[in-house]
């Protein structure tokens, strides 16, 4: 996706020894192995990313992207599989991406290059829009307020159960992306607040917040400018966030990004262009299996992967952090 390329170009130099004081590796957690999601159906021959579920788990929305061409797609569960994806009814006129469903399914927030005013030109970048559910269909998309859409590098929303929206925004002075939250109160989005997570000089991307805001998963370049971003989880700690925990090499070897939570709030869905390793020489049967997999999904494009967060969510330290009434790593956001 276009914003991913911009993000990589905007990386800052963050030394590993500095990061060592602000984040830890999840050495005590046994990382489960990620699995490809819906191979050949959704994770298919074309690249897809950033998948979000309706609350019942039977409908998914995701990006179908090819450089500057893209849509938000919709598919429905059919038996043990998925229907042929089609362009979502609210998408297609503009380059739309990064869909994020509200936990109750009442609305969806996404990024678009849609003109900020009717009749205007397409944006060079993206801003956040909201579309509300009306019965079996969708209403007219509404742009989030100017306080949220600062500039045209506003991406990757995630929606909490109370309507708060988390997202990434580029700092125009440093060109780094950071995570923000805009609270939903009295029918209005409030002034955004930057999240205090790890090293403040690093960038953070692609938030996936729990419905109750008890934890957040995101990717960041805490390990250094010249290394791939890694996934982290941070738990609510009083009015702030605890120390980010690295999700480990078992998932980070996929160079994951674009995190979203499944309806159970315990399964992580992320994007990766990971390809399976092939051993040579191979038998005829192995060659045919490799070809079938390549034709289904294993082609170097971005696809959706999933893994359980149980090792981290069920760990004693996460429960203790969530229950902590006082300690905070920052004061730029709150739990209410």
Automatic annotation (TrEMBL):
SUPFAM superfamilies: DPP6 N-terminal domain-like (SSF82171)
Keyword vocabulary terms for this entry: Signal
Region (Disordered): 317-336
InterPro entries found in the cross-reference section: 6-blade_b-propeller_TolB-like, WD40
Domain of life where this protein originates: Bacteria
Polar residues bias locations: 326-336
Listed name of the protein: WD40 repeat protein
Endpoints of the signal sequence: 1-26
Organism: Rhodanobacter sp. IGA1.0
């Amino acid at each position: 996706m276009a914003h991913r390329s911009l993000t990589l170009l905007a990386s800052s130099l963050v030394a590993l020894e500095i990061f060592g004081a602000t984040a830890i590796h999840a050495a005590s957690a046994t990382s489960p192995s990620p699995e490809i999601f819906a191979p050949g159906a959704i994770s298919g021959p074309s690249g897809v990313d950033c998948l979000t579920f309706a609350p019942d788990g039977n409908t998914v929305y995701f990006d179908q992207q090819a450089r500057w061409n893209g849509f938000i797609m919709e598919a429905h569960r059919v038996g043990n599989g998925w229907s042929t994806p089609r362009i979502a009814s609210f998408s297609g006129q503009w380059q739309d991406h990064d869909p994020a469903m509200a936990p109750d399914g009442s609305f969806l927030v996404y990024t678009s290059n849609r003109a900020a005013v009717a009749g205007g030109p397409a944006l060079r970048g993206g801003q956040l829009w909201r579309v509300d559910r009306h019965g079996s269909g969708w209403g007219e998309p509404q742009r989030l307020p100017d306080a949220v859409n600062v500039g045209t590098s506003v991406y990757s929303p995630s929606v909490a159960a109370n309507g708060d929206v988390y997202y990434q925004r580029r700092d125009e002075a440093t060109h780094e992306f950071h995570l923000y939250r805009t609270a939903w109160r009295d029918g209005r989005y409030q002034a955004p607040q930057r999240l205090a997570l790890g090293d403040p000089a690093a960038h953070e991307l692609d938030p996936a917040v729990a419905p109750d805001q008890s934890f957040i998963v995101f990717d960041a370049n805490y390990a250094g400018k010249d290394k791939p971003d890694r996934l982290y989880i941070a738990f609510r700690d009083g009015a702030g966030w605890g120390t980010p925990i690295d999700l480990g090499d078992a998932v980070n070897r996929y160079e994951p990004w674009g995190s979203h939570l499944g309806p159970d709030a315990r399964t992580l869905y992320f994007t990766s262009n990971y390809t399976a390793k092939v051993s040579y020489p191979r038998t005829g049967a192995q060659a045919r299996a490799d070809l079938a997999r390549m034709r289904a999904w294993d082609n170097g494009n971005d696809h959706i992967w999933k893994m359980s967060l149980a090792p981290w969510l069920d760990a004693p330290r996460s429960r203790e952090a969530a229950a902590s009434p006082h300690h905070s790593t920052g004061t730029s956001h709150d739990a209410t």
